[in-house]
Please model this.
Amino acid sequence: MSDKDVLSFHYGWTYQTPARNFVFENRGVATSVAVRGNRRCEWAHPQALVEYSRALSQRSFGPATAKYRELGTAANLLAFNRLHALPTRNFQRGSFPEAEQLAPEQLSQARARARKSCAACTIGCEHLYALDSTSGSANVRVEYESLFALGSLCGISDAQAVLAAIKQCDELGLDTISAGGTIAFAMECAERGLLYAPWLRFGRAEALARALDEMAARRGLGELLAEGSRRAAEALGGEAAAFAPHVKGLELPGYEPRALQTMALGLAVNARGADHNRSGAYEADFSGQVDRRNPGLAAVQHVVQSEDRAALIDSLIFCKFLRGVLADFYGECSRMLHLVTGWNVTPEELRLCAREIVNARKRFNQRAGWRAEEDTLPPRLLEQALPEDERARLSRQQFAGLIRAYYRARGWSEEGMCDECEPLSGGACP
Ligand code: SF4
Model:
């Protein structure tokens, strides 16, 4: 690695130090990796690369990234709430009456705030807050996903308690989405009598703190919670599996699938499970290009394109928040790659590479025993409309039709198998 290397992840954060130590905090696991570099990576076209990156920096100050600069990733929390897209009380509702207390506009009124960024980033989406008004140090990194998972999803509106829970997760090495999703699920199980834990109820901040501690230590109820919502539901039996909030064992992120149905498809078919970083299909729902509560077949192409772009961004290793800045996505990716490596890979070849990355993930899953019934959502989301919005309803039959259309668009079999998709021969990538 050289001093010029910039690695930026979202929910896979990377910290660079002079000693080249990196800490990856990924979904459910914290891993420390030390890399000792002993030579400098040469750029193929250094002068042109510097000019290109300067121009890109300028563009990154534009409107496409303004909300991340000003309010961080939580910028849309209140908009989500208005659209009934803010998952609440383990996806029993899509809006949280106390959402304003968790919104960044409100958080910054009551406490110190600081902005930070990954190395060389011009956007700076990382917003840190002090725990309360008396604490001068802004040291809790707040993301939308953490606010939703440990706030509205658990029915907790006390901002200080939610910030404390975020800090607790960071210190314990727990992923906030998976931890919050599993605890919200357990809260509902306890309320329904599927689990004996009288202390564990929606809205109780002290219960959230205790559950996080027990989960990290695998103590008491934590022995079950540490397994995540899928395995916990299997252990509890009964109706628990109907509302365990996961896809392929990965807890759902903060996008209510019934209110954002293009995203619903993206979450169901993604190889990694309910991962909003491998499918940003919610952009189509918010863009007005589709009817977000009934997108029909239009959802399929949006999901395919979103997955392909995310796969390429992750492979080229640049921040996903730049995607809105690139007017010609594949063309600019081709140019960046050329300036750094000297490779002449056309935009169309990169498009094929992206597609092949998605196919490779699929084949990996198949070898690991993937079954078609795993491409789905929690049963309750396919059976019940959102209580606040009768139009926010998924039909099991129509959803299955969309999944089959997605398989066809990918060139997979009707059953979703990618066996016959040959890896690219001849090699689009050097
Ligand atoms: S915008 Fe991207 S690179 Fe910048 S701070 Fe946020 S995650 Fe890091």
Residues 126 and 324 are 18 Å apart (CA to CA). The radius of gyration is 22 Å. Residues 8, 10, 68, 117-118, 121, 123-126, 319, 321 surround iron/sulfur cluster (CB under 6 Å).
